[in-house]
Amino acid sequence: MRKRKISFRSLLSSVKLTIVLLIIISIASILGTIIPQQEADIFTSRLSPGMVSVFRELQLFNIYHSTWFVSLMLLLSINLIVCSANRLPASWKLYRTISVPDETELFRDTPSDRIILVEKPLNAEAARLEGLLKKKYKGISRKDTEEGTFIKCEKGNFSYFGVYIVHFGILIVLTGMIIGFLFGFDAYVEVAEGDSVDKVQLKGKTGLKKLDFAVRCDRFSIDYYEDGTPKVYRSDLTFSRNGTILQQGPIFVNHPATVEGIRFYQANFGTVPSGDAVIGIRKGREKARVVRVRLGTEFDLQGNDGKAKVIRMEENFMRIGPAVKIDIQSAKGKFQFWVFQNIEQIIEENPGLIDRVPIFNPGLFAPYVFSLAMIQTKHYTGLQVTRDPGVPVVIAGSFLLILGFMTVFFYAHRQVWIRIDRQGPNTRISIAGKTNKDPVGLEREIKGLMDEIQKSGVSNS
Amino acid sequence: MINTIILSWVTFIYLAAFVFYVIRMIRGEDIWGRLASATAFVGLTAQTAALILRWMESYKMGIGHAPLSNFYESLIFFAWTIVLLYLIFEWRIKNKSLGTFVVPVAFLAMAFASLSPNIDSRIRPLIPALQSNWLTSHVMTCFLGYAAFTIACGFGIMYFVKSLDRHTGSRSGSMLRFLPARSILDELIYQSTALGFIFLTLGIITGSVWAHYAWGSYWSWDPKETWSLITWLVYATMLHVRLVREWRGKRIALMAIIGFACVLFTYLGVNYLPGLHSYLKS
Q1: Is A133 exposed, middle or buried (0-12, 13-18, 19+ CB in 10 A)?
Q2: Does one domain contain both B172 and B245?
Q3: A110 versus A234: which is more confidently predicted?
Q4: d(C-alpha A396, C-alpha A214), whole Å
Q5: Less Cβ crowding at N or C end of chain B, within 10 Å?
Q6: Domains in chain B, number
């Protein structure tokens, strides 16, 4: 029983677990790029119903937000914390450099290219070297013994903490993501030119979110380059509350507007009927009359034949084109029918349609025949509306991450020892070094240090 | 346009440099090595000039932007970063054998950009989504990362090639004696991977900041984002097994190659998956 307890803790703190988790998360992420994540019809239709329910059960259509994926991330975070906490004391010890190796041992087999002989008194050399090392290193300590003078110095000992800064940065980023998930929202809304809205459609959830203010689209416009590719999508927006304007101005792609912590992004656009249309009215064999009509406005037919009104206006009704729905009140009764713009073509493609579906017959109110010349349209702008209080936290975490990487990869703890003793008539300077990583870099540094010792020695004499 | 003409010439300069690096490996004469380096340097200089010309030309057309905006320009920039980083490495480690393994990648990228009929080499105006100051920093950091990983992969392949050499030390008669010792290659794989990892991280961060301004979400699990994360996780795993579990040698070399495969998929393969980055389909 006891053994099991220990192994559970050691499991949480093991790098093996980290690696296994990293691999599983990678594979899950790959799956997410292969399986369409919106449960696309084309994909599900290729699977058997059983498979679809298995996929749904395993949340494979929404992997990145599935319980098991989030659990994996959580487990990784715990592993990160436990690992770091377990290793921190050892790093602290290394930082304080409590371990002092036996100095005579360090210089037992000093290679000849690490030795400089000078014809100067030992004490003067020791003082000179101490001054020289002070400029480049810290933690300088000097020890005078019978075997000679030892100077020890070091630099980069803070590099032991780089890895903790990295891990802490990752945890901060994840925290920021959780904050965004809990306290933020992600929504979308379409606003036609001249219209005003204060409710937005939440993404991934059903339901509308009411904002504390209203957003009006004053104008939407597109500019094109000479070759016809779009250059600028621009929405002029006005944000107001109870008639008071809070903010007003254009937004572009890459240039959102922020109002009371909520951001509005240019995400989409399109056209909707503006409410104006041009229709033709022909009575029997008479010449057709062209009338400009407005949605919901009543107009008279000839004499006392009746009153007509356009009650709906669709830019692409039932995906077969522009159409208006006309309502007629007359002595003969009440009539309602659709008038399509391209009625000839529709009849050609669907012979007998207007007999089967009388509501599609533009001549339903005989002897009148209606036709639709055009529907006027206006733009609407599609706005992405988000609030994410986690963003500053994620940014802070990212900075820590980069700072940590710099410390881990570009700095190493380097310790250098210099022994100064007498060898015959000369003073002998020997150098030894130690590093926690990057031995090649240490080699280069010692070489540079030796050059400097020799050069400054010559210039001094 | 003069810049595309220079760039298609640079393709052949890199091919020549590659050939010289190979000859130097086979014959072992130092003159070929110097010729190879000089050729690569001339190619890099010409390419730099062409990139600057292209940049200036776009301003003359009234649609000024850095030449980093479409697939053609990204391939060219990829080749440029590879050769730039390679020459820096060559100068630092004083060994020219890496050129045989890395310069051909730059050549292939250039050749693909110049010769593929599906790639439009004209300067195009920036679509609204790309009109951002983050474009330059995002693309530059990503491709510096990709280039560093290319070099790490080159070292990884060299490691396996070197393993074929049964003789050790400089006494070996085979041409493999020009490759650095395996312990050094192992260290170099680590260093170039670490460099690439920092740039990849910066690339992901700059991309997130940009997405935050453009799409309203710093992370939306779009396939390119996800694959960059996968690549990041693969290299994170590699660094952990090396630093904590003391893996060395063949296993690390293999991971450098696997990591590079992920990089290639992130760069090229993802375009065949649907997503927000798919405007890269030229």
Answers
A1: buried
A2: yes
A3: A234
A4: 32
A5: N
A6: 2
